[in-house]
User: Fold these one by one.
Assistant:
Number 1:
Amino acid sequence: MSNSNQSPANLAAPRAASSTAPRVVDAKTRRKVIAASFVGNFVEWFDYAAYGYLAVTIAAVFFPREDPQAALLMTFGVFALSFLVRPVGGFIWGHLGDKIGRREALSWSILLMTGATFCIALLPGYASIGFGAPILLLALRLVQGFSAAGEYAGASAFLVEYAPPHRRGLYAAVVPASTATGLLVGSLMAAGLTGLLSTEALESWGWRIPFLLAAPLGLIGRYIRTKLEDSPAFLEASAAAAPEGSPVGSLFKNHWRQLIQAAGAVLLNAVGFYVILSYMPTYLSEELGLDATRSFLATTVALLTYVGFIFITGMLSDRFGRKRVLITASVLFVLLTVPAFMALDSGSFLVIVLVQILVGAMLTLNDGTLPSYLAEMFPTKVRYSGFAVSFNVSNALFGGTAPFVATLLIASSGNVLAPGWYLMGAAVISLVAVACSVETSRKPLG
């Protein structure tokens, strides 16, 4: 293996004459790649879990208390606004990842993301500095949104380019598994804090604990990444020909159809992920009247099964193809989403848990397949950009806004099934987008 501190250009130069020779990747290196990809996305979604699951507490800390529902809407509004910078981050991180290398982009994105998360733990509340508190919170969430825009796309491209050709789906499934694990640990921590601390202690200092943990985890992730060589596919592409012009410019000029299809395919994932896995505890407690501890418990049980289903889905997509699995996911959501939300209002805790497991399993068919599908849609020279732009545009418009839109739809319509209809609409659009695309699982990476 080459020295990990060499730049991609230096690594490529001596290989130019033999760029057609395949690079041999050992199992130890692949394990490091998996660990490096896992940590960054784990930290990112652990933070989102902490923010989402403690939304009621954060609303009380950072906004006026006179109107709790308005405070909760503003809390989710800050969550949504942080996603608006994601397309900007997608363009920049995608450009850097395709131009100078996946490893370099990922090493800096995790440092910036975890630094902003850590700083949130240090913020004073509304009672101390008034509206300065939510303004500072928004500023740090914007930094998080910008830096996180490169994580999911970069880690997925990294894994797909390191994976054996017949196991790209399984390797890429590590990324959504890491996000679900982050949500799971965040859910467990939120449940523990909510159950063990008084409301006063939780609002005073307890909510800060999850955000403080970002710093050591982020430093570990960055250390692992700096010890890796860039992906074989990127090094081979760099050795064959130096990158010319802007990857994003090439993306829009030569691959705009794939970009539109990819953005549409992401829509179900964007809405489903945040409605089912992030917003659900708030929905169960605030809209259906389930106590907070049982809401967290139901979501935690669903997340435990979700992580296992993710890897099964990765293997299914390797066996049956990306399109078939993604289309199955969309059809199931069209048929079953609204009945599932109706069952959540049954009043039975067992039924609530079973419904969450069911819709979680349905979502894994999309979530576990999407990383390999998106990475394979674009050639190596624009892979990071294509993935980052399509994924972050859909998430900015429909993912980060999902908790806010769900809360607003219920408030304006008075119908607690409104999030289910919203999710069903997203599934229809994703179904059309995937149906119009080509199968990618059995093609070599371009």
Note: The two ends are 24 Å apart (CA to CA).
Number 2:
Amino acid sequence: MSDTGAGGDEVIHDAPGFIRVYKSGRVERFLRIDFAPPCTDAATGVSAKDITILPGAGVSARVYLPPAPAGGQQGKLPVLVFFHGGAFCLGSAFDAAAHGHANQLAARAGAIVVSVEYRLAPEHPVPALYGDAWAALQWVAAHAGGQGAEPWLTNHADFGRVHVGGESAGANIAHHAAMRAGAEELGHGVEVSSLVLIHPYFLGGDSSESDEMGMALLDELVRLWPVVCPGTSGCDDPWINPMAERAPSPGASALWYALGARTP
């Protein structure tokens, strides 16, 4: 789309109620982040704290630790590195909805959850946020080698059970993080054990079976993709279409795909 906003700044993408992007690089986001502070949840007993991964880049995370079983000592726990959704350009790990979701994941799975606050496009276009995801995985792996400083990981994590997951754009990010972990060494003997994708933001392929609402959403995602990934080759870009080229074989002992719908 092309339009003119205040001051003659040309609008290059407008998703009413969500985001407006200007040619100058200015971005307006209309979905308010309902910040939830880290705390110990009264209902689940899960504790949460915020940590910094890349101080200069502003990449951080919220870490969740489930409570020890009643009358028993807490054993080593699996780790889930999780990426929130938002079409690469919206959302936050610190939003109340994302916080509540991660809290429930930690409680029900009995896992340490590392919910990553990655940088958003279009200010930090794809593939920059894939680098943020890789940094988060490396941060977790460093604790297996005694180089990390987060006691919840050093004292409670089972580094033989490190999992990666995400929702919507976060699922896309998780996919690429897992593929990179299959092609490169994370370090300290850590491998990705499984991958969980919830309604991943992927494009490409046959959309003929989509209903009217699904087609409208798909059209919007197709329109948004070159905004968050300038210079893309389109819907068959391997960044957005995992079937566009053969992915490297994962080095993990088991890699599972829990695929929902193709779109968020």
Note: The chain has two domains: 1-30, 33-228.
Number 3:
Amino acid sequence: MGGNRASSRGISRRRFLRRSGAIVGVGLVAGCTGSNPNDGTRTTSEGGTDTPAGPAALGYDLSVTHELTEWDRYDPDWEPPSDSPREEYTAEVLATGLEVPWDLSFAGEDTLFVTERTGRITEFDSGTLRTVAEPSDIIDAAAIEAGSDESRWRLTGGEGGLLGVAAHPSYPDPPVVYVYYTAETSEGKRNRVVAFDASAPAPDETVVPVVDEIPADTYHNGGRIAFGPADYLWITTGDADPGLEHTEQTRDPASLAGKVLRVRPDGSPPPDNPDSTSDADPRVFTYGHRNPQGIDWLPDGTPIITEHGPGAGDELNVLRPGVDYGWPVVRNSGDHERYPETEFQSPVADASSWAPAGGVFYTGESVPSLRNRFVFGGLISQRVTAATITPADGPQPADGHERRHDASWYDADYRAGTSGLLSEELGRVRHVEQGPEGDLYAITSNRDGRANGPFPRDDDDRLVRIRPA
């Protein structure tokens, strides 16, 4: 643990460029060092992995206050921009040679964790990359070589592997990090959310389950995790049903497939989670989702997700507790029922060609033209998209947007305008995140075998910082 990566994993080169103003202060803040705090109590997971008996076994106090008003981005009186994001942007490359990076988590003031779908949780520290943990029961997932011209949609691992990452809200005290990954078990693939002690000498040996038994498949695994405004852990799960062979589970509140979950840091459900049916899983916040891969919040604490559609019909959805979002019955694409003809909750925006991934409602000052917009990555679109979301009873998105989503059947409480940025400059963009100093970062996903045009380049995959041109 903690050394350089083995070249046998196909890594051509890795570097983290420390420039003037580039990720100032990113480094290792361990919080607690020393011996593993586990008390030795062990249980065997479904897949036979020897893991601690639960989050309490880490030996830290994981509790938080869950006060929305204490969130540093809380602003109930926020106002959307009155213009469109027409400014030109540039991407400053900070790190290269990553293997299909999937998520970013800034922890505390000076620590950055990155997941690579091939199986590593990495920490950036002043120009170096350090492997923090590699889950032992994760499925085998692959990346094509940087600069390769091959196109392989069905790479080993499909869309599974190591996905979301989120540091505890009080990191580094406790020094606990959460990850979402696809595991091999005795009953087949399952998605898991686990926590581990990032300060331990062997973090892999401290892994504890937080939410287990999430349905998994080669495709449609969801996978984004994030701590929200009131310090609950939110989890997006896919329908795990790309062939539509188990259509009942997505809209079944008792199943964890095709859901947005909300739990405390120890994995238990909050008492005010919605109680949609008598047999509903108490961790379920919303259901009827296909493959949500991004989540963030408006400044008043309202959650927004990105959701992949079937061959088209990608969506941005504003979430309401306990609501059914209709998949696989309704979608404005294919042979599905259309929203204007149903009672299901409709999206705030949709498109046929985003393939929307992770995003952030940006509140920083470094890119002023994107402030108070939801900025998310696009895979098949190979760009970043900025969405201006406005209350339906207020000023509407400006005419300069690439598209205005103002038809009467959209979400009754909001309107949106969307515009593409950095088209074909980065390739497939997997996630966009805001740093602690208000900078805007993105990671690419060009080594997953699905990139078009000049991608993957020799230095893919990359971590970049987005700036005004």
Note: The CA atoms of residues 36 and 422 lie 45 Å apart.
Number 4:
Amino acid sequence: MFKALTIAGSDSGGGAGIQADLKSFSANGVYGMSVIAAVTAQNTLGVQGYVDIPLEYIDMQIDSIFADIVPDAVKTGMLSNPDTVALVARKLHEYKVENLVVDPVMIAKGGANLLSREAVHNLIEMLFPQAKVITPNVPEAEFLTGKKIVTSADMHETCLLLTDMGAHAVLLKGGHMGTAESNDLLFDGTDFHTFTTKRIDTKNTHGTGCSLASAIAANLAKKMSVFDAVSEAKAYIQGAIEHADELDIGSGHGPIHHFYKFYT
């Protein structure tokens, strides 16, 4: 049994964050574990508030996992303040984590800020160099690089800028581009690969980014290459979005259907 760890924020609504990560791990055939770095009060309508977990308890959670159930891959999500980012980066370096997926969560689906500006510096300087893959969407990539992304050429240039920041590979998610199809661009450090999927007309996309990054981590835990891990994760997420309306959860941006392969 391969194992994956998520270090992120808890979503009380169950659609994103730790809860989505664990669902995504399970649906992709790995044993999931969690380190909760923040607790949010949220639902399909938005984030009503959040509180950071004290650093000593984040530290303790990480040590507990690595002392007994060493993960084959780690995914990070919401790390809302610079001290949390620094601690997580130090611990992952200490435990020599090789398969690290960093999802630079900055803004919730409903628009709430989930990452302070001060934390961005530590994210770039301390976590990106350890990451096998980072998975920013277009607004996050624009914030990280200061470059406006409008065209496919912009996406290619941005991937190069992000690898210059230290990441070994970048999956730049193009869902915010507003095109008829959704185009994600992977730069694996050597080559570019475009993943084109049909855009689904649904408001139920809460947790898509978390779940995609977690699916990639699950596949890396299973010893896949970066390209195969991303390709398989993209196919899984596409199905989860296509079946999202079957759940009909909440009155806002509902969750995707993590277990569409197992029940409808």
Note: The mean pLDDT is 93.
